[in-house]
Every structure is written in C-alpha cells, then in structure tokens.
C-alpha cells in the first residue's frame, strides 16, 4: 500500500509574503516623511509616492506584472491625494480602512451564499477552479476557514485602524499598518489552514483531489491524464 503524500499547508499554496511586505512600505515612508518635515502632509505624500515608484520600478525590472505594480502605485497616489485634500494626515490610511471593511463584508457574504472566498482563491491558485464545490466536505471546510479571514484579519484591522484613525494617531497607524500586514497574514493563513484541515475528515484526500465529470483516471490528475500544475509561475 502506498502512503498518502503529506498535505500541503495553506502557506505553501498561497505564498504572498512579498506583496504584503511591499504594501506596507509606502505607508511607513509617508509617516517618516511627515515626521521629518515637521508634520507636512505634502512631504509625507511625496516621499510615499517616490518610494512606491522606486519599488514598482524594481518589481517590474524583476519581472513582476506591470498591471499589479500600477494598481499598487495608484492606491498610494489616491491615498496621498485624499490626505492632501482633507488636510488630515491620518486620512492617508482611509482607503486601507475602507477596503478592509469591504473585504470583511465580502468574505462574510461569500460564506453565506456558499461560495467561500478562501476556496475560490485556493481553487484558482492550484488550477482547480470551482471543482472543489462538488465536494461537500471541502465546501464545509472552506466555509469554516473563511470565517478566520473575516474576523482575525479584516475585522481586526477595521477595529485597530478605525480607532487609530478616529483619534488621529498617525504614527500609530503607520506602525499598525506594518504589523497588520505580513505578520497578520501569516497568522491568518496558519490558523485558517489548521481550521481547514481539522474540518476535513482524516481519510479525505486533500485540497487538490476533486475528480472532474467523466474522469476515468486516478484522482489528482486533470482530464488529459497529466499531473496538475502547482503554483502559477510569476
């Protein structure tokens, strides 16, 4: 009898540390520029945009997708323009606060309608698309694990960012923006992965094994009979 290969962790499947770290650098640059220039929003905005441009150029030179870099740069520019328009440095973090509110609501709604977003994301990453929904055990596991993202990541950020934004704590917002980026994502991935695999019965074959309709081959292969691809190349 052949032994079943060990299950992959969500961290192995999702990755994403580089993107989370990159996203926390321009806000930190904003706070630093704001402090050094005597709490000048214009200087803080300029430093943040300059750092975002340099970081984007570096990523494009390394072969990252230009569209993702442009979106990240646009978000920094929009945040800077909001702070310049309102004259409140804490408003640089307003987009981040609102995006986490929207994410919490979206992830919760996806669970209610039985399309948990964790399953959608993992299915796309591993090339499984939406076939996981044919497995009731996977659907239940993804639903429970998605609640971890709702509360541990997005709701926590909303509470922290919201309270600091309301009280005008610019430096604390910059620190929180860094601490609640990759460190929190790593914890969320680990905890949701634990919930996911604890929900699946011990005999369940794992995340990648969902047979296609009419698949006569062994589980874990695609309709052409070849082994499924792993993580998408970047």
From TrEMBL:
The keyword Transferase does not apply. The chain crosses the membrane at residues 43-61, 68-85, 105-126, 147-167, 179-197. The keyword Transmembrane applies. Residues 211-234 are annotated as: Disordered. Keywords: Membrane, Transmembrane, Transmembrane helix. It comes from the Bacteria. This is DUF3159 domain-containing protein. It comes from Amycolatopsis speibonae. The lineage of its organism: Bacteria, Bacillati, Actinomycetota, Actinomycetes, Pseudonocardiales.
